[in-house]
Write a sequence for this structure.
């Protein structure tokens, strides 16, 4: 409904569009009758003071009892002449609320004004005591923007243009407000001096009432009385959220203790186990009975010590250590502030797992330390190909690691003796001899040494024939010899090496972006032959793309080589396995890169290779493409509430996704696409 600005009983729109009267004047023609009275009550013309053009104003005719629309009926024809006496009206008004605050709407009501011998035709209001009329009408409203007493003047005019004025003082109390203040510390009680954002939101509407940033570990906000949700956030900590009531002129103290963000979450099972290496990892958390899993790659013969330290009063933590088959090999359960497991020498190379379990319903912060090293007096033999054809050469490496620098002798025997044994590397050995069935090396006095030699398989060797390696180290500091562990056999294989293995791509992107990671999943099919553990290796497209990880059906991996590689678990004849390779794209990468990948059967020497080109594109500018890139969806209709929540969380923490720095416009686009669906 349109407003009635002048209080004449007609809507503003009706006055403008239908009657042609002034919506800001209650009496357009000045005849003493309000426009609404002329139209709705008397049937006179509000734009003409003398509707019947008989020389008498409409209002005078009504007072004298004649018809203002009939020119034949005028006061001159009346038996009673018009009166020249007119009493002025009485001006009076009230307001509500009686003690308004700054910013509060005040309603002024002049219905208590009166006229003893007629009626009041106009109400004029002056709200700032400057003599200027701000509003007209019997009932009006006004709002003050500053505290203190101010003057309001009402002037009323009757139908004979007599007027009367009254003035009153109106109080304006200061705006009602309360205060929220507090400190921001970490779990050790130290102030957080890194950038922290605080947001004070209406707990009912989630509207942000005020917000700000602080770097001194303290914050203060002024808000009207009410219930508020307080959110304290930082990129290095989990959000602190709490709801509190604020009262007038009262200070509500809300001290925020921020928990450090656990960089490895989620890692609640073997599949999501976080990869770690030797070192100390701080600010971890086990929350409400959850489990944390960590994966660490160890070479055969290496030792590992793992410890966790925490405050037992926060809750109890327990630790288990699993082998590559995910079987427990050692555990630690106590009521102290730390748990420790130690493995002197692992029996095989592969991925081992650390399980930290919380038996408490509370959040328990903890630190984890892993120390890895060769076992004392450890000597390991590695054969590069344990299946070879007649005439092939295999490389044998013996790595010796002793606990003291000293002279020692290595003797490695081969049975039956091959046709040729040649030493190709003898680091830290001062004397090396080779025979048809043995290699002997004398160290130069050290705690570690490496001996490398090649063995040629005789041309007449039969399929399935086995060459066995056995040896020991004579250490002068110990009474007993130290056996050489590791690979110990080479089996002759004369079967056809061609067409026994096939490598193909299951999932690979067509385009990638600078400063991002992406994965390619490969399928390895054993077309024929025995169960085999394959080796997959590749080059990412140096220097623009490098390999950073292998996952899937793998036993172990090595990322430190020029061509990073991984060894699969055994694949039976006619079966297929898959391996996923993770690549890192350089920030300055452009153009097209070629990914070269090869899978090799160590038993037969068979190989299968792939080369594929991937184009490098820049970060998209289109809002739709950016939203899809951030959420990982293929089309906007597939967006879920989880996608929206994850994007908002990463934005609040200043994180990037797939090389895209999330902006407010991205969040708006993601929310819009989700709500539209």
């Amino acid at each position: 409904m349109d407003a009635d600005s002048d209080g004449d009983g007609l809507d503003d729109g009706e006055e403008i569009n239908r009657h042609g009267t002034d919506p800001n004047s209650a009496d357009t023609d000045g005849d003493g009758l309000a426009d609404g009275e002329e139209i709705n009550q008397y049937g006179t013309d509000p734009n003409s003071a003398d509707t019947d053009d008989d020389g008498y104003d409409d209002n005078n005719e009504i007072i004298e009892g004649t018809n203002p629309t009939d020119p034949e009926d005028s006061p001159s024809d009346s038996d009673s002449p018009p009166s020249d006496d007119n009493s002025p009206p009485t001006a009076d008004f009230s307001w509500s609320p009686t003690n308004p605050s700054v910013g509060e709407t005040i309603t002024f009501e002049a219905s208590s004004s009166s006229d003893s011998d007629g009626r009041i035709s106009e109400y004029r209001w002056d709200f700032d005591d400057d003599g200027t009329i701000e509003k007209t009408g019997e009932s009006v409203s006004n709002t003050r923007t500053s505290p203190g007493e101010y003057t309001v003047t009402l002037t009323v005019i009757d139908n004979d243009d007599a007027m009367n004025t009254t003035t009153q003082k109106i109080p304006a109390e200061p705006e009602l407000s309360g205060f929220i203040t507090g400190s921001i510390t970490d779990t050790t009680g130290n102030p957080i001096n890194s950038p922290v954002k605080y947001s004070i939101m209406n707990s009912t509407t989630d509207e942000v009432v005020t917000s700000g940033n602080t770097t001194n570990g303290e914050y203060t906000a002024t808000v009207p009385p009410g219930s508020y949700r307080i959110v304290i956030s930082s990129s290095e900590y989990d959000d602190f959220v709490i709801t509190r009531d604020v009262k007038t002129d009262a200070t509500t103290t809300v001290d925020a203790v921020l928990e450090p963000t656990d960089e490895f979450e989620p890692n609640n099972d073997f599949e999501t186990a976080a990869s770690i290496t030797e070192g100390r990892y701080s600010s971890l958390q086990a929350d409400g009975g959850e489990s944390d899993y960590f994966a660490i790659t160890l070479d055969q013969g290496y030792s590992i010590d793992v410890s966790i330290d925490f405050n037992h009063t926060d809750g109890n933590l327990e630790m288990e250590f699993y082998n590559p088959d995910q079987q427990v090999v050692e555990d630690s359960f106590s009521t102290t502030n730390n748990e420790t497991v130690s493995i002197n020498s692992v029996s095989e190379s592969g991925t081992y797992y650390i399980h930290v379990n919380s038996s408490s319903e509370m959040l328990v912060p903890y630190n984890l330390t892993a120390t890895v090293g060769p076992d004392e007096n450890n000597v390991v033999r590695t054969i590069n190909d344990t299946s070879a054809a007649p005439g092939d050469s295999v490389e044998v490496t013996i790595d010796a690691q002793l606990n003291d620098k000293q002279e020692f002798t290595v003797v490695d025997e081969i049975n039956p003796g091959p046709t040729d044994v040649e030493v190709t590397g003898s680091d830290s050995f001062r004397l090396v001899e080779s025979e048809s069935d043995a290699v002997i090396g004398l160290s130069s006095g050290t705690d570690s040494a490496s001996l490398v030699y090649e063995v040629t398989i005789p041309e007449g060797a039969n399929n399935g024939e086995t060459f066995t390696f056995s040896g020991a180290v004579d250490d002068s500091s110990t009474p007993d010899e130290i056996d050489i562990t590791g690979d110990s056999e080479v089996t002759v294989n004369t079967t056809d090496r061609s067409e026994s293995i096939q490598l193909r791509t299951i999932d690979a992107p067509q385009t990638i972006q600078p400063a991002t990671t992406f994965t390619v999943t490969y399928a390895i099919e054993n077309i024929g032959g025995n169960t085999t553990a394959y080796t997959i290796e590749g080059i990412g497209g140096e220097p623009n793309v490098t390999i950073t990880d292998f996952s899937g059906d793998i036993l172990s991996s090595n990322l430190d080589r020029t061509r990073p590689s991984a060894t699969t678990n055994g694949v039976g004849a006619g079966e297929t396995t898959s391996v996923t390779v993770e690549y890192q794209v350089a920030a300055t990468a452009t153009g097209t890169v070629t990914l070269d990948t090869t899978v090799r059967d160590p038993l037969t020497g068979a190989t299968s290779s792939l080369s594929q080109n991937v184009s490098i594109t820049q970060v998209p500018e289109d809002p739709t493409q950016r939203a899809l890139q951030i959420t990982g969806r293929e089309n906007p209709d597939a967006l879920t509430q989880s996608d929206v929540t994850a994007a908002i969380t990463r934005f609040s923490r200043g994180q990037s996704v797939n090389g895209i720095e999330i902006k407010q416009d991205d969040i708006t686009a993601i929310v819009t696409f989700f709500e539209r669906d």
